[in-house]
Each structure stands twice: as C-alpha cells, then as structure tokens.
Amino acid sequence: MGKGVAILCLLAGGYVSVAALGVLPPEYAVIHAPRGVVLGGGALLVVIGFMSLARDHRMSDAIASMLLLALAAGAGWLTFYAPEGTLSRYVPFIPSSVNEALARLLFGFGAAASVGMAIWGVRRIFR
C-alpha cells in the first residue's frame, strides 16, 4: 500500500511538473495558477514520493528535513516579504490591518515550527 501511494505521488507530481513547464499541450492540462506555483506543487509531490520510497530512516529524515526547510522558506517569505494586501482578504469580519498582521504572525509561527522540526530530523539523523 505504501509503495503504491509513493508511486502515485511520483506520477502525479511528474505530470503536474511537466504541465507547469509547458511540455504538455494546453488541452491536456488546464492551469489556473501561476506556473511557478504549479511547478512547486508538483515538485513537492515528487519529493514526498521519494521520501516515502526511502528504505533507510536516515534518508527519509534527510529528505523530510529539506522539505520542511523549503516550506519554512516559503512561510518566511510570506511573513516578511509578501506585498501589502496579499494576506488581508481572507477573514471578512476582521479589519484588514489586523487580518494582515494575524496572517503574518501565523505564517511566522509555521516557519518557526518547520525549522524546529527540521532541526529535530537532522538531530535524529546523527544519532
């Protein structure tokens, strides 16, 4: 069962990545998001597939740590460098300034938690 899910992740991630790179004809894959975002999602699925296929826990911990650091980088970018107004429109009953600050705070906590889990995974590798 586990290998089947891993292979499914590899195939789906590869398909999405190839579609984002523009190799497939437009009628095979309709993309409604920026191609960089779609490519990132496909690459994420491929990494999860490789992590699931790793037989050694050290290898899967290393891949998971790299994945967590990549997620932390994205959350950190949203926390510190996202343009104003990007994060302020999701909760309609809160004023936009509070909504933006709350979203940045939550993404910052997510980045810190991801870095902490990556450090824990690296520590586990070297035990």
Total strands: the figure is: 0
Instruction: Estimate the mean pLDDT confidence.
Output: 87
Domain count: 2
N-to-C span: 29 Å
Largest sheet geometry = none
> How much beta, percentage-wise?
under 5%
Order of helices and strands: HHHH
Shape: flat
Uncertain parts: none
Question: How does the helix and strand content classify structurally?
Answer: mainly alpha
Number of helices: 4
Main attributes of the structure:
single chain, 127 residues, mainly alpha, 2 domains, 4 helices, 73% helix, 0% strand
What does this structure look like?
- Helix 1 (2-21) runs antiparallel to helix 2, helix 2 packs antiparallel against helix 3 (57-80) and helix 3 (57-80) runs antiparallel to helix 4.
- The protein folds into 2 domains: 1-53; 55-127.
- The longest helix is centred in the C-terminal third of the chain and has 30 residues, at 96-125.
- It is 73% helix and 0% strand.
- The relative contact order is 0.12.
- It has 4 helices and no strands.
- With 127 residues, it is mainly α.
Layout: helices, strands, pairs:
Elements: H1 2-21, H2 35-53, H3 57-80, H4 96-125
Helix pairs in contact: 1-2, 2-3, 3-4
Q: What is this entry, summarized?
A:
This protein has 127 residues and is mainly alpha-helical. It is 73% helix and 0% strand. It folds into 2 domains: 1-53; 55-127.
